Structure formats: C-alpha cells, structure tokens
Amino acid sequence: MSGVHVSTTVNGDAVEFVCPGGESLLDVLRNRLGLTGAKEGCGTGDCGACSVTLDGQLVCSCLVLGAEVEGREVNTVEGMAEGNRLHPLQRQFLDNAALQCGICTPGFLVAAKALLDENPNPTETEIRYALAGNLCRCTGYDKIVRAVDAAAKDLRREAKRKARQKSK
Amino acid sequence: MTADTSYTDQEFELVGTRPVRPDGIDKVTGRARYGADASAPGQLVGAILRSPHAHAKIKKIDTSKAEKLAGVKAVITSADLPDLTHGNRASFDILENCMARDRALYDGHAVAAVAAIDQVTARRALSLIKVVYKKLPHVTDVDEAMQDSAPIVQPHIRTPGGDPDKPTNISQISTFGHGDVEAGFAKAEVIVEESFKTEQTHQGYIEPHACLATLGPDGQGELWVTTQGHYTFRNICAELLGLEVANLKVTSSEIGGGFGGKTHVWMEPVALALSRKANRPVKLVMSREEVFRASGPTSSTSVDVKLGATADGRIVAATATLRYQGGAFPGIWGMLGAMTSFACYDLENVKSIGYDVLVNRPKVAAYRAPSAPMAAFGVESTMNLLAEKIGMDPVELRILNAATEGTKASYGPPYGPIGIGATLEAVQKHPHMRARLGKNQGRGMACGFWFNFGGQTCCDLNIGVDGTVNLTVGTVDVGGSRASLSLIAAEELGIPYEKVRVTIGDTASLGHNDTTEGSRGTFSSGMATIFAARNAIEELKVRAAQTWEIDAKHVDWQNGQAVARGIEHSNLGPLTLEELARKSPTTGGPIAGHNEVVADGAGVSFASHICDVEVDPETGSTKVLRYTVVQDAGKAIHPDYVEGQFQGGAAQGIGWALNEEYIYGKDGRLQNPGFLDYRIPVCSDLPFIDTKILEIPNPNHPYGIRGVGETSIVPPLAAIANAVSNAVGVRMKHIPMSPPRILKAIKEQQAGESQVSAG
Fold first, then answer.
1. Distances from the Cα of B12 to the Cαs of B501, B585, B694, B703, in angstroms?
2. Contacts of residue B206 in chain A, CB cutoff 8 Å?
3. How many CA atoms lie within 13 Å of B684's alpha carbon, on the beta-carbon side?
4. Which of A147, A154, B304, B549 has the most CB atoms in a 10 Å sphere around its CB?
C-alpha cells in the first residue's frame, strides 16, 4: 500500500506522517500521532466526539482525510491548555460538573472554543445551536451550557483586563 | 465482614459539598483513556462479519480465501468458540450471541471474525469470507411473535405451563399482585382501560464497545475493556473460553457511557479467541452501526392497563398486561415491567402479568431502570385518563393513592420510609405547576419507581506514610462516583477531600465486585468505603494507644486525629492521621482498612416529573419548553452529580418519548443504525432541566444513601405523553410521539369529530 507523505502543524508543533490515502484525520491523530483525545463515536460526522479545528474552522476529523491537512493547522483538545494553565472552558467544565462519563468532553471543548473565538458573548440559544453537532448522552446538556456561558464571561473579563493593561 | 448498616443521622463536614472531581483534569485535557485508547506492542486489529439476514440457517462458512490474504493472522467461527458451558443455558445464550452457531438469529448477529495487521486488511478479509445462508421466516414485532402462527426464534423455548411439545416465543410469564381484582372492579364506580405501545430504543452511549485482548497458549490473558462490570466480564469470558478465573486479568477502562448496555459481554470473548489463535494482542472496536445492530437495546413493548376507582378517586382495582420482547434470547424484561408497573401506589387489589417474548432482534440489554419506563408510560397515562374521567386533578389523584411507609408493594414486600408522597407534594407546590401556558402548549406530569440494587462489593483503603489515602474500589465510575467515594472516605477519616485518591481496581487487585448496575455504585461502594475507613480507624487507634502506652479502649477518633479519653490522659496531645501514618513503619507497618460486604438494603427510589411542551399542529413536531425533576436521593453525597443523573435520565426519556426508535423493514433488517437516522436529543432540542433533590434517608445505609442513577428515566415517557395529549387534545398511546404519529392522531381525532357532527 502506497502512503501519502504529509507535513502539517498540530497544536503548534510541526508534524510529519505517512498515511494511506483513504485514512481519516481522526485515525491519523489517534493511531499515528498518539493523540487519542479526539474520539470516534460514529465515524459519520453525526456525534462531534472527534471535533478538531482545521485552520481555525471546526470540523469532524472523521470526515477529513489525513492527506488533506498538508500545510495546514490542526488543533485538538490536547492543545487547549497553555502549559499547566487550563483554558477557561476546561476550568468551567470542571467547576460546573459539565461532564459525567467524559467521552464527549474533548469534542464539546473544541466546539465551544470555536464558538467563543467567533462570538465572545453568545446567548443561551446561540450556545445551544453552536453545540448541536455534539452529542452528549449523560448530562442533558444543562451543565454544559452553563459552563460555556461561564467560560465566555471569564474570557471577556480576561480580554477587558488585557485591553486595560495595553492602554496603560 | 458484617457491620451495622443502619442509618445514623450523623453530621457531615464534606458529604453534600461539590468539589471538583478527581478524574477531572484527565477528562478535559484528552488524557483519560477509554476503551479504544489503549494499545499493545504487536497488536492486531479485529473485525467481525455479521449476518445480513434477520433469521437464517448457516449452511456453510468458507474462510479459506480470507486466511490466505497477506496480513491476516487469525480467522475464527463458532468452531473456535466451542460450547464449554456444560448445560448452563444462560451461558450458552451469551456464547451464541457472541458468535452464531448453526443459525443467525437477527440482522447483525456475528458469524465470523478476523484479526489482521491493520484495519484495511481486516475489512478486506471479511469480504473474502463466504457464508452460505438459507433464509428462514422471521418476526420482529412483540405482539406478532406471540401469535400461534409466528416463526419460532429458538426451538427449545416452551411457554411455562403450556404445551411441553410445542415450541413458542414466550419464554416466561410473571404474575405479581395481591387482593382480588375481580371483586375490586365490581366495586368500582369508574373504570378506564387503554392499550399502549412503545418502540425499541438504544442506550446510545457515545463510546462504542471496545477492548484490547491478549491471551497466550499458557491460558493467561488480559483484557482492557469498556465495561460496567469487569469482574462479571472476567467470569463470563473465563467460562466461555475455558480459562481459570485467576488467569484472566480484566481492567476497566474509563467508560464512555453505559446505561446498562455495558453490563453484558458482546464481543470480548471473540477478541480473546482471536488473540488466542493469533497469539498476539487484538484490539476490537465496534462501529456505531455495529453498536446499534448487535449490542443490546431495550425492549419494544405492548401494554394494557385497566384501573377501577370510586367516584372520589380511590383506586379499588388495577391490572396490567405487559409484553416485552427480549430480542433473540430469553430475558427478564417483562417480569421487571410487571414488578414495577404499580409500585408507586397503595392498592388493595392489583395484578400485573409480564410476558417475556423472543423476536429476531438483537439481544435486549438493561437500559437504565430497565422495563420500568414502558410500564410507567401505560400506568401513568391511564392515571391521567382516570383523573379526567372523574374530574380530579391528576396530582391530587396520585397523592390520594400514593404508597406510603408500610404499604405492601404491588411486587410483594412492604415499603420502609419512601418518597413518592413527598415528590408529589413537591410537584404540587412547585411554581412550574402554576406557570401560564400558551397556544398549542400542554403540561404533563408523571411518577416513576425503581428498586435499586446493592450486591457484592469490596474495597481496600491504604494509608500512605504521608497520611494520604488510596482507596481502591471495584465498581466502575460511570458518572462521578470517584468524587463521591473520596468525599465519603475523607468524611470518615476526618481528612481533606484532596488527600484521598480513588482508583478502580482491576480484577487481580480486589475480590469480586458485582457489576455497576442498579444504581449501586455510590450506595454499595460507599457502604464498603465507610466500613473500610472505620476499620482503618480502629488500627489508627491501636497505633496511637501503642505510642501513648495506654489501652486502645481509651482512644477516640475525632476530626482526623486520635484523642486519649479521660482526665488521667489529659497530658497526651492528639495524634493526627498524618503523624500516625509517618510513624507506621515502626509501629507495626502499613495501616489499611478493608471491607467485603453484600450490600443488601438498597433503598427504593421514586421521582415525579413535570413537563411543558408545545406541539406544532402543522408539522406534529414537539418542543420541550420546560422540565422539572423531583427525586428522592436518600442522601446526595455530591449534589452536582446527583443533579446530573436526574438531568441525564430526563434527557434520555425525552429522546425516547419524542424521537428515538429502531425501525425495521419488512425484511427484518434494521433501517436506521446510525445517529443521523436514530436521532438522540441534541443541545438545541432541550431546555435547562430543573432539579429538586429530596433526601428521605434509606434506613439501611449509614449515610441514608439510595441509588440515584436510574429512576430519572422512568417518568418522562408518561409525563411527556400527558403533556402532548393535553396540548393536542388527543390521547397519545404510541411512543415515540414522532411528528407523523402526532399528525396521524390529530387527523384521526378530527375525522372522528367531523363524523360525529355529520351524523
């Protein structure tokens, strides 16, 4: 089987791999790069457990081919925390008990981050629709929506503080 | 070890608080390892070939081409999983479900499997296996399967008490109740009677079944698997593969949802058999399609309910006939339906009959309070019909007939202190019940019951030299129980929550623990943890006494330290757990506590739910506007995760009530084995789900804990059906109330009305 050689960036690191042309980005991440944070819940783009961003855009990595990410930028849940500092979304998911089994959590965090990067002040409805591509079977979404709302507030506060510091 | 399990009404420092779960960081950073996240050197990829037919004789399987394909290391059929069950029919059923013998019994039934160097090769190998089938007549509907003329799923099954020579699909008939229902109905001033149907749903855990199996020619093996019960998996796999129990070490991975579906083995014996044949580790992961087609959903049912009452609302007779299909193997689902159906009420004359029926569908598995939601749908819908008929408020009617302490349950035993009345009164007082409703909107409420379960449990509590504590338990953490058990251990020992680390032990580290089912995790491991901690405290007191050179009888344990009692010891300052731990190497070695218990006395649990919906009369689409759960937890150890159980159960119930259903074609094949066509609720489908935790202590647990995991899925079907029926003015009798069913019900009603007006 002939493989495709791919050079790409994953969570800020330059990465190279060889994969069969038909292999999904999800399988590449999990089986070739050892990044098992993205999960396969369905393999058909219906559950969002494999959510990652590709050049900042939210995608189901099970629907993207590994060969497609040549020269692009992939971000996964493993890249969310800065060193030992959790992202506000990660912190708020913990503080709000927004996970039970936790299998959907990486996908939700990536999807919620994509929302907040684009819309720092979403309404409850906007949060619910932005996360409608991610299935959770444990929580009924209640605490997830609250956690995303709380993290959005944290991020806005942080942005304001940074802006104030800049203006000083 | 026996200890006093009675409720003691102790004051709590930590129990009832809401700290961050100990496994949290791993789960928000992607580090937590689930079933498919483990790998072993030299591992192969497994794959399973499944029957495309609902029912077929397997005439021949030719694996020769697959075996010759480069990269294929093992191909197996039922011949590689011979029958070692020695006449144990229940075990044989599990074996036959893992790998078909002479007949495929449902669409998706495993018929062969391969292990190869990669996924592409494994899939190609499956396509090279040639199976010659002879199609047989099939049946997938529970009522049709009970007909005399129905195709027979398992020829050895006989109806109990029926013709011993006549094969049938009815494997069990279970009758519960007391009093004289005929006499009761004769006394009744009002009688209501209705029939209901529910379709089959799947637990829908987001993590597919996955395992990594290693089994060598020496009969020693290891299994890493997503499961609710690794000890049970070990015992079953060992029996089916002819292994000694101690030679198979099973480790439960983090579990990505189970809801009962991961209490049964589905493919783990196949992975072990492949590994044995290839003598290499084999990773086997189901696709979502396989999860739907070949791992157990819940039953589809048909239920008849009849209630008789006096004009002022006292129920004088109640009967239910409940038919549950268990897939292609005998189940206990009709029995559980019959047991739970009238459990909420205090009834003088009651009778329920449950039928367990075989059909050509996948083996049914437990699904969160298994069988209770469908029975509650029938009974709680009929309760509303009765309330309408006698012109009584439905909550009042329920309060008037609610079971109380001392009531003889319809399934047999008398109740201890229970919470059905309290949940109903909380519903009655809740502002949700008085909120205004708009056009096309309706409100419904319903009650639910679940037994809860205790079972075999053991744990180890080891105190480290720095005074930190390792607690090892054998119940799987399906939704935050490590946080609850840390709270309990810290509470007992009198140390901070952060000083306890809970680990789920593998099968080589602890004695047998029953499967984490029946809402037993925090109840039973909590009980074992309390006793193990108290056990360790006794040893800590001995060590303190030894240090002080006094009699251990004069040592108390208070707030995490040993205290010498009595004026004669007033010169002795307290010794903290940490101080005693540091001294332990020279005072007798490591300090530990252990407990082995059969945690009897699980407290029954009741809930009442309120739901508001809006139905679009043009499309038949239903939107849940507001939802409130009131449930008795006994004692909420970590309230966040108790609320989470309430909300999650309600959400699953909403999906079941409105959308989810297995759709079979005339060919007996499942038509919607994927999340696109089997649609579970998404974030934008639901409102916030309000919760109210009641705490009516379970007298049989030191902290008063009842299980909380399951009851929350029992009322939603009926609560939503009552709400939709109120919104559209038609009684809904078929779950799910999908848009086409609601439109059909509205149209039939309108047609009936125009006929009446025309007549």
1. 20, 32, 17, 9
2. 39, 41, 47, 49, 101, 103-104, 135-137
3. 12
4. A147
Question: B24-32+454-599 domain in CATH 3.30.365.10?
Answer: yes
The total of other beta-carbon atoms located within 10 Å of residue B164's CB is 7
What pLDDT, in 10s, does the model give residues B99-149? 999 999 999 999 999 999 999 999 999 999 999 999 999 999 999 999 999
How big is chain B by its Cα radius of gyration, in Å? 28
Look at residue B1 in the predicted model and tell me its pLDDT: 46
The nearest CA of chain B is from the CA of A131 a distance in Å of 6
Where do the domains of chain A lie, and which CATH numbers do they carry? Answer: 4-79 (3.10.20.30), 88-163 (1.10.150.120)
Closest Cα of chain A to B687: distance in Å?
Answer: 8
Q: How far apart are CA B103 and CA B135, in angstroms?
A: 10
Interface contacts (A, B; CB < 8 Å): 182
Nearest Cα neighbor of B479 from B712, B202, B681 is: B712
CA distance B60 to chain A (A): 32
Query: Is residue B65 helix, strand or coil?
Result: helix
Instruction: Return the H-helix or E-strand segment holding B49.
Output: strand B44-50
Q: Do B627 and B691 form a contact (C-beta atoms < 8 A)?
A: no
φ, ψ of residue B287 in degrees (nearest 5): -80, 165
Residue-wise pLDDT tens digits, B653-699 = 999 999 999 999 999 999 999 999 999 999 999 999 999 999 999 99
Average pLDDT over residues B425-438: 98
Q: What SS3 class is residue B64?
A: helix
Of A95, A138, A140, the CB nearest to B479: A138
- 3-state SS record for B618-687: CCCCEEEEEEEEEEECCCCCCHHHHHHHHHHHHHHHHHHHHCCCCCECCCCCECCCCCCCCCCCCHHHCC
Cis-peptide, bond into residue B151, ω within 30° of zero? no
Show residues of chain B in contact with A100, CB under 8 Å: 257, 478-480, 641, 644-645, 648
Helix, strand, coil percentages (3-state) for chain B, rounded to 5, are: 35, 25, 40
Residue of B nearest to A20 (CA): B120
Please compute the mean of the pLDDT values over residues B383-389 and round it to a whole number: 98
Name every chain A residue with its beta carbon within 8 A of the beta carbon of B204.
137
For the stretch A46-65, pLDDT in tens is 999 999 999 999 999 999 99
- A139 to chain B: closest CA residue: B648
Q: Is the pTM of this model over 0.95?
A: yes
Is A135–B680 a contact, with Cβ atoms under 8 angstroms apart? yes
Say which CATH topology domain B426-444+603-759 has: Aldehyde Oxidoreductase; domain 4 (3.30.365)
CA dist., res. B534 & res. B470, Å (int)? 15
CA atoms of B76 and B470, how far apart (whole Å): 42
Closest CA to B201 of B358, B355, B364: B364
In chain B, CATH 3.30.365.10 covers: 24-32+454-599, 426-444+603-759
Read off the pLDDT band of B757 (50, 70, 90): low
Q: Cβ distance B352 to B324 under 8 Å?
A: no
pLDDT digits (tens, 9 = 90+) for B608-655: 999 999 999 999 999 999 999 999 999 999 999 999 999 999 999 999
Mutate to test the interface with A, among B17, B18, B25, B27 (most CBs of A within 10 A): B27
Q: Which helix (H) or strand (E) holds B176?
A: strand B170-178
Q: Positive or negative, the Cα torsion across B116, B117, B119, B123?
A: negative
Comparing CB atoms, the residue among B23, B684, B689 nearest residue A142 is B689
What is the CATH number assigned to the segment(s) B35-137+203-294? 3.90.1170.50
Radius of gyration over alpha carbons of chain A, in Å? Answer: 17
